[in-house]
Amino acid sequence: MSKKKLAKFKTPHTYAIIFVVVVLSWLLTFLVPAGKFSTHEVEYKDSTGETKSRTVLRAETFRYKYNLNEEFLSENLPKLAEDEALLEENGVDIEAFNAYIESAPQEFTQGDLDEVGLTDDTLYDIYGEDFYDTSKKLNKTAGIWGTDDFGGFGFLNYVFEGLVTGDKYGSAVGIVALLLVVGGAFEIIMATGAIDAGIYAFIDKSRGLERLALPILFYLFSLGGATFGMSEEVVPFSMVMVPFVIALGYDSIVAVTVTFVASQVGNAVSWMSPFSVAIAQGIAGIPVLSGAGFRLVCWFVVTGLAAAYMMYYAEKIRKNPTESPMYEIDNKVRTRFHEEKSDQEFKLGHKIILLEMLAVLIWIIWGVMAKGYYIPEIASQFFVMGFVAGITATIFKLNGMTLNSMASEFQKGASGLAGTAVVVGMAKGILIVLGGSDANSFSTLNTILNSMGGLLQGVPKFIAAVGMYIFQSCFNLVVTSNSGQAALTMPIMAPLSDLVGVSRQIAVLAYQMGAGFVDAFTPVSASLIGVLGVAGIDWSKWAKFQAKMQLFLFVIGCIVLFIAVSINFQ
C-alpha cells in the first residue's frame, strides 16, 4: 500500500468498531450452540474474616441447549408424581404438579414445567440429560430487530438494551449516571479556574522535579487498585490529571495511563483486593489472602516496570509532542495554558476550592474503604464537590461565577460526556448479544467458557498456566466485572489446575492478571470508556498505544507465571 493511500486511511470511530463487534458476536451465536450450567451458593471468608456467599457455576453440570424429549417426559413424569419425597426435596409444588399431569398435556414446554417447580436445573438433577432430545444442539440467537415485548430481542436494539441493563450499582445504568453527574460537577470546577491556577502554581514551585510526579502517581493509583479494586473511582480523578499532565509537557494518553492503567496494574497483581483475589481464592477453595508475600513482591516489581514503560513513552512525547496521536486535541489545552500562564493569579478562592476538592477526595477514599461506598455515593459526593466549588467561586467572584452559570456549566459538562455514556451502553450490548453472562441461562458465552476449559487438559504445567492466563485475558474482553469473571471462570479453572498439576494459587494468579491487565484495553470496560471520555480520547487511538503496552504486560505476566510454576507457588 502506498504512503498516499495510508495517509488517506482514517481510523474507524469507536461506535463503528463496536457495531462491527456486535455483528460478529451475533453471527457467532449462529455457529456456536448455546450452553448453560447449574449453579449453587459457595461460602467463603473475606479479608476481614466475615463469611460471605457467592453464586457460582457447577462445572460438571454443563449441557447444551436441546429440545425436550416428549416421549421420555410423558413416560416418566407420571411416575415422578408418585414420589412425593423426591418432589418435596426438590421444592416442587406437588398439588400444582399433580394437576398438570392429570390435565394430560399434549406437549411439554419448559415454561409450563417451570410454573410447577420443575425447572431445567431440577429435571437435570433428577434425570441427567435423559429428559433432553440430544439429537440436535440448539443455538440461542437474536433477531435482527425486536424488543422483549415485541418479537424478542434483536441485535439492532443493542444500544438501548445495553444502556438500560444493570442498576445504579453497576454497568451500564450506574456508570452512565456517574459519568453525567461527575462530568457536570467537574465542568463547574474547571470554570472556576482553580485547577488551572493550581497547576501553574505547582509547576512554578517545583521546577526540575516534574518528572518525579508521574512515577509517584503511578504507584499511588496502583496501590488503590491493589487495595480496594479502584476502577470506577478513577473517572473523576482523571478529570484533574488530564490538564495537569498536559501542562507538565506530556499528553492525555499519559494521563490515562498514570491513573486508570496504573489502577488496573495494581488490581492485576493485588495481594488483598476484596473484589478480585479474595473472591477468586474463596471460590477456588484456598485460604483468602494466602500467598500475599509473593503477590506483594509482584505488585512492587510489576508496577515499577509498567511505570517505566509509561515514562519511556512520556519522555518521547515531552521531547517531541507532535509524535502524540492526541497532539491536535491536547494542543488546545496546551495552548490555553501558555496563553493564560503569564497573567494567572493563584487567588485565595482558588486555594479554598482546591482544599475543598482534597477534602472530598479524602472523603471518597475513606467512604470506599471504610463504609463500602460505591457508584451512588461517589456520584453524590462529586456533585457536592462541584456545588460547593461553584458557591465558593460565586462568593469570591471567580471568573464571574453565578448560580445561573453554575447550572449552565453543569449542563455543558453532562452533555460533553453523553457520547461516552452511549459507548458504555453499546459495549454492554456486546455481552447481551452473546446471551449474557448468567451461567444459569443458555448462552454462547457459556459454551465458549466450557470449551476453553477443556482445551487445557493434558498439557505441560507452564503451558497450562499460560493457557489459563490467555483464556482469562480473552474472557475479560467481554466480561469485565472482576467478581463476575471469578464466579464464572474459577469453578472451572480451579479443578482444572488440579488435573494439569499446577496449584490453585497459580490458577487465581492467572485469573488476576488476565482480568486486570486487559481491563485497560477492552472497549467493553465501562470504567475505561468513562476515563477515555473524560480525557477526550477515542478508543481506537487508545487501542493503538495500549496494544503495545498489553503485549509488554503479557510478557511480564508470563514471566510471573513461570516463576510461580518453578517455585510451585502455593
Write a short abstract of this structure.
The protein has 570 residues and is mainly alpha-helical. The chain contains 26 helices and six strands.
Describe the structure.
The protein is mainly α. It is 66% helix and 4% strand. The chain has 26 helices and six strands. The strands form three sheets. The protein has a two-stranded antiparallel sheet. A two-stranded antiparallel ribbon has the order 2-3. Strands 5-6 form a two-stranded antiparallel ribbon. Strand 2 and strand 3 form a beta hairpin. The longest helix is centred in the middle third of the chain and has 28 residues. The two termini are 52 Å apart. The N terminus is likely disordered.
Unreliable segments of 5+ consecutive residues: 1-9
What distance lies between the first and last C-alpha atoms, to the nearest angstrom?
52 Å
Lateral arrangement of strands in the main beta sheet: 1-4
Number of helices: 26
- Content-based structural category: mainly alpha
* Beta content: under 5%
Averaged pLDDT: 87
Assembly level = single chain
Radius of gyration: 26 Å
How many strands, what sense, and barrel or not for the largest sheet?
A: 2 strands, antiparallel
Helix content: 55-70%
What is the total tally of β strands? 6
Shape: globular
